[in-house]
Design brief:
Distance between the termini of chain A: 34 Å
Number of helices of chain B: 13
CATH topology of chain A: Rossmann fold
Number of domains of chain B: 2
Distance between the termini of chain B: 48 Å
Number of strands of chain B: 15
Radius of gyration of chain A: 17 Å
Number of domains of chain A: 1
Strand content of chain A: 15-25%
CATH class of the largest domain in chain B: Alpha Beta
Shape of chain B: globular
Largest sheet of chain A: 7 strands, mixed
Number of helices of chain A: 10
Order of helices and strands of chain B: EHEHEHEHEHEHEHEHEHHEEHEEEHEH
Strand order of the largest sheet of chain A: 2-1-3-4-6-5-7
CATH architecture of chain A: 3-Layer(aba) Sandwich
CATH topology of the largest domain in chain B: Rossmann fold
Oligomer: heterodimer
Structural class of chain A: alpha/beta
Amino acid sequence: MKTVFEYTKGMNETITSYCPGCTHGIAHRLVMECLEEKGLLDDTIGVAPIGCSINSHRFMDVDMCESAHGRAPAIATAIKRVHPDKFVFTYQGDGDLASIGTCEIVQAAHRGEKFCTFFINNAIYGMTGGQCAPTTLIGQKTTTTIEGRTVAHNGKPIRMSELLATIDGAKYVERVALDSPAHVRQAKKAVMRAIEVQEKKLGFAFVEFLSTCPTNWGLSPVKACEWLRDNMIPYYPLGVIKCPEEVK
Amino acid sequence: MAKKLMKGNEAFAKAAICAGCRYYFGYPITPQSELTEYMSHALFEVGGEFVQAESELAAISMIYGAGLSGGRVLGSSSSPGIALMQEGISFACSTEVPFVMINVSRGGPGVGTIQPGQADYYQATRGGGNGDYHVIVYAPASIQEGVQMVYDAFDTADKFRNPVMILADGMLGQMMEPVELPPMKEPLKEEDIPKVKPWALCGKGVRGHKNVIKSLELKPEALEERINAYWPKFDQMRKELTSYEAYNLEGAEVVFVAYGSTSRIVREAIDLLAKDGIKAGLIRPISLWPYPYDAFDKIGKECKAVISCELSMGQMIDDVKLGAKDRWPVSLIGKVGGMLLTPVEIAEGAKKQLGVK
């Protein structure tokens, strides 16, 4: 019988700590699947953030370290200096990357660091229990915006991909979503291209994944995917924002 | 080897390169900027890597990143910058990642001043970051001593898998003295890291299973177990690393305790007091953590007063009291704001304590 799908060797055979319906698991699998297909699992060093995915090193079967909140791009910068031919990535959520770690991600992109960042945007702080994030949508209720986020009080949600795409050192920037099989397949292509940008030492590569947080959104897994589709995608448009010729 | 006239900051940087350090990450801050500047060209000349970080928070994270990758790495800053770096220092202690830091300290608190200060004693020796850990802290009194400390600190950091801090001050960083540089060591090659540092992250292919450098333990039992597991190394450090210099203690009526550049001013005060027929001695802690409490047992029965001399409102004095164990009255001669003590001030202060006019 022909095998049509196999669980990637890049993931440990264990149950993740993520809530039912959370799309972290899909993002983890995509990154590991691509690294396996590229034959890079033995030569990869990853940096886990502060947030739910601090535990990602329990599930991804590659060398990994934890980072102080938001500092993963600075850590990856140095790892790549010591091991210039290894594949280096950071995996960060929106509280980590778009709030406390804005300085580190912008400056790493600006230096054109040759690592990849996989950015999980679920429009909320997950691990601490559903507070407003810089990416929280207008009107979205969180534990620190109980009446819903307002422009007057919090400003508009930050679009990290568009912001980073303005920086010359960022060579590849794409936003994808994990709400449907079709989008997941597109997301995998984005991860592959990001890996190739690093393999070719072209500069910084960034993939933003629109993700769900059913627990803190107060929705069922299915409803959470619908909410992502109906609310996040209109504000955070999907697609390649920047891509070098070499990986097209 | 012939001696060379060098500025402290540059000599410390060169000593690190001699010790095989090939990675440096820093952020400009007075009075240590020459160290960063020196590394920016000197490291490239030996095939090393230098990044001027966007902040001290990023710099310490880069230092941690290079350390956990198995690189021999140096960081440096000055007091307010070190305060920002405490996040990463605590993280590195928690994850047992070795590196060497140089703090060319200045007056505080807050932005304070750019002149020399010793008010970083607490943040250096008491763990300015969160949690249970210690940083090994050495205080040089001369540029030559600082050079040797930096040179040796990398092996100490690697041996204990713990950060080491050289607590210099603005005076040592900025002044020039003749120094003899230590011999150049062969740097660790990337391909040798898995052998020498089997815990380091190099990609799992080198060993067949993944390495994880982690700090988080959500289960309290697990964190308790981890802290208990690494805690004995601090007892070992106390046994192996405690060091001090005792000067003129025999028959001393007054014993000064001073570290770093201040200890040199105290020596002049001791000479002044000798002219007045007053015998004074000095305990100079060389390691500030672990602190040389045993040095105080060398003080003779003639001693009537122990005086902590520091460029602060009294921080090391806490350790002086722990060492003195109420055997002698302990007092402070301090100066703050970037002002320096003078030999006359110290001598007069001692006479006052002794009740001598």
